[in-house]
Amino acid sequence: MGKTKNVGLYFGSFNPIHSGHLMLANYMVEYTEIDELWFVVSPQNPFKKPNSLLSEIHRFAMVDRAIEGDDRFKASKIEFKLPKPSYTTDTLAHLAEKFPLIEFSLIMGADNLTYLHKWKNVDFLIKNHTIYVYPRPNAKQGEYHNHPNIKLVDAPQIEISASFIRKAIREKKDVSWFLPKGAAQYIEEMNFYKK
Q1: What is the CATH number of the domain that holds 153?
Q2: Which of 55, 70, 74 is closest to 10 using CA atoms?
């Protein structure tokens, strides 16, 4: 039996999830072969310092609230149960076993594509999964740019960063339009990013 649907995996810290993430997710389900998009909240990115992160449970709750009511999207905490640091290839192997009828694709920025050669089991990953790559400013060409499983998409570039939002909240700026309503409410309720 063939695969039933194509799920795009959008990995990230989502610290916090913001409108730019959701605009990109919206673009991906409307303009690519992806049927559904899962926001995979990463407990600890091997390339990021863990001390700057909110607890993964809170970041997952923000994503969950941000996408509430939109059945094209799902918040996933699949990596919470896997060994840390989490590697994409291990997560994909786990998901393929758990959901054999789903075809999983990856979503990443062109800046990540530049460093793809450093990823664990990258040759297996790129041979078995389509990778949708969205534009990022000043991203350099990497050795995998012309691989047939790499699909460069012409998504609009939205220059909003989570670090900008955290800093703005610390400085008591109103960033309500930069955040999905559910995430903004959760940040306010929990008093996050104020110090």
Answers
A1: 3.40.50.620
A2: 74
- pLDDT tens across 32-67, in order? 999 999 999 998 665 666 566 899 999 999 999 999
pTM value is 0.93
Residue whose C-alpha is closest to residue 194's, from 163, 161, 172: 172
145: number of Cβ within 10 Å = 15
d(CA 115, CA 166): 26
- Going 26 to 79 to 57 to 42, the CA torsion angle's sign is negative
Count of structural domains within the chain: 1
Residue 14 region, left (φ>0) first, then alpha (ψ -120 to 50), else beta?
left
Q: Range of 124's domain?
A: 5-158
